[in-house]
C-alpha cells in the first residue's frame, strides 16, 4: 500500500477519510486497553489510536519507539473535550498496522535531544537528525540554498566548481594537506577558499560566478567554526564596491523572504571599520541594540587622574544599575579581552559614587551630559591603547547584552556592512606587516601612495564585511587587477619576489593577461543559517559536523591508517605517533 499523505500535509479537509501513513513511532502509550502511538515523518507527528478489538491491535502491540510503521486508518477530530485547536485536534483510528522494520532501543530519548550530551548526539547523528529541531534546521538550510540559486541564476551568475585538491590558498589559516601517491613527498592543500580560482574565472571572462563551496581551514574550533565548512562564494567583473553591496543586499533580502518569510529593510546601514570599533568595540557589532561608547579621552587628558591622563583612548559605556558582583564579572571580561581593568562610577543624582568617583569630580557634569546615564545606572570605562581599550569595552558591551537581554528589544535580525577596513595590520608578535583580508584585496585608490611608507597602516582597503546580529556572515573586497599594485602589495607584507612567485606565480602570470576590474564576497553559509535558525552553534545546521576537537564521532574520523597505506604514499610516522 502506498502512503496517501505526509503527516504534516493532513488538513481538516481530510477528516473522515481513510489515510495511509508511513513513518517512525515517536512514542507509545498503553491506556485502558488502548494503544496510543505517535507516528512521525519528516513533516509532522500525529496521534494514532488502536482499539483493543481492532484487527490492527496484535501488530500494533509489537511497535516500540523508533520502529518503522505503516498505518492505515481514519483521520478524525478528537473528542471535543480533548481539543485545543490546530492539527493536534486530529488523530487516526487505526484499521491496519504493518511493522515495516524494528529498531533497537534508541541510546537517548529523541524528545530530549537538545539536552542530551552533544557527543552522544553526534555519535548517533542519524537519530539526532530525526528530531524536529534538526529537521527544521536542515530544511531551512535547503530553502536558503534554493533562494540563493533562484536569485543568482536570474542575475546571470554561472555556477562553477573549483578543485578540492589544490595548492595553498591565502586566507591566513593553516592548510589541510593531502599527500600525493603519484608524486611522492609532495602534497596538495585543501582549499581554504576558492579565492584564486574565482579571480581566474573573472580573467577567463565569466563575468559573474557563484558556488556553494566547501572550504577547509585547520584552526582551533569554536561554536561558530568547523574544519570543513561551506561558503557561498561569489565574484563579479566590471563592478565597484557599491555594485557588489547593492546586489548582496537584494540577495540577502531574497533569502530571508524565501526561507523565513522575513522582510529585511534595505539598504543595510554602513559603518566604517573605524566607526564600528570606536562606537561598539567590534568589527562585527551587534546592532540589534544601542549602548554605543562615548569618547571621553579629552576630559581626562593631562589631568590629575593618572590612569586616564596619558591614555591614548578613554571610552565609556552606560550600563543599567549593576551590583558589585556584576561589576567584578564584567571586569574579568574586560581583562580577558586585553584591558588592565574596568573603572566604574554609579550615578547618584547629579553626582557619581563608588569606583573612581573621587577622581572625576571635575568631569561629572560633562560625563552626565555625554552619556545620559540614568539614575542609579553605571558607567564603565576602558582606557589605554585604542584598539585594546575599544576591544575590551566591546566585550563588556556584549556581556551586558547577555546579562540584561538587551537585544530582545531590537529587531529579530539586524544586517549591516562594515567597510573601509585597513589594508594592512602590524603583527606585534612577528613584528611584520600582514594583510587584513587577503593579499588580493584592492587598496583605496587615494591611499596607494602610502605603500612602503611609515603610514602604510593607514591605507584603507576596498573591503567589506556583512554583519548579522553580531556575527560576521560575509566578507569580501574589490580585488587588485593591476599587476603593478599586486607587486606593491606583496612587497608591503614582506614577500620577496621569489616568495610571491613560488606561492602565486601562476596567478601573477594570469593577472598580466587582461584582468577586468572585479570584486566579490563569500558568505559563511553555515554561520548565516545558524543565526537565521536561532541555533547556538553551527553544528546545529550541518548534517554531519565534527565536534569541538575536530572529530567525527560517528564515522570515527580522523583515524590511524595502516603502515602499507602510508608506504604507498612514501610516508613514515614518527615513533611517537600511534600506529593502526
Ligand atoms: N575568499 C574570501 C574569504 O574566504 C572572501 C572573498 O574575499 O571573497 O574570506
Q: Brief overview, please?
A:
With 580 residues, the chain is of the alpha+beta class. Helix content is 28%, strand content 24%.
Cα radius of gyration in angstroms = 29 Å
- Classified in CATH, the superfamily of the largest domain is Bira Bifunctional Protein, Domain 2
Mean pLDDT metric: 95
Structural class: alpha+beta
Structure report:
This protein is 28% helix and 24% strand. It has 580 residues and is of the alpha+beta class. It folds into three domains: 7-101, Beta Barrel (OB fold (Dihydrolipoamide Acetyltransferase, E2P)); 135-270 and 417-540, 2-Layer Sandwich (BirA Bifunctional Protein, domain 2); 289-410, Gyrase A, domain 2 (2-Layer Sandwich), CATH 3.30.1360.30. The strands form five sheets. Strands 6-9-10-22-21-20-17-11 form an eight-stranded mixed β-sheet, with helices on both faces. Strands 1-2-3-5-4 form a five-stranded mixed barrel. Strands 12-13-16-14-15 form a five-stranded antiparallel β-sheet. A hairpin with a 2-residue loop joins strand 14 (343-348) and strand 15 (351-353). Helix 4 packs across helix 6, helix 4 (132-154) packs across helix 15 and helix 13 (483-492) runs antiparallel to helix 14. It is globular, with a radius of gyration of 29 Å. Aspartic acid (ASP) binds at residues 171, 193, 195, 231, 475-477, 520-522. Residues 171, 193, 195, 231, 475-477, 520-522 line the site of aspartic acid (ASP). GO terms for molecular function: aspartate-tRNA ligase activity; ATP binding; nucleic acid binding. Keywords: Aminoacyl-tRNA synthetase, ATP-binding, Cytoplasm, Ligase, Nucleotide-binding, Protein biosynthesis. L-aspartate binds at residues 171, 217, 437, 479. Residues 195-198 are annotated as: Aspartate. InterPro entries: Aa-tRNA-synt_II, aa-tRNA-synth_II, aa-tRNA-synth_II/BPL/LPL, Asp-tRNA-ligase_1, Asp-tRNA-ligase_1_N, Asp/Asn-tRNA-synth_IIb, AspRS_core, GAD-like_sf.
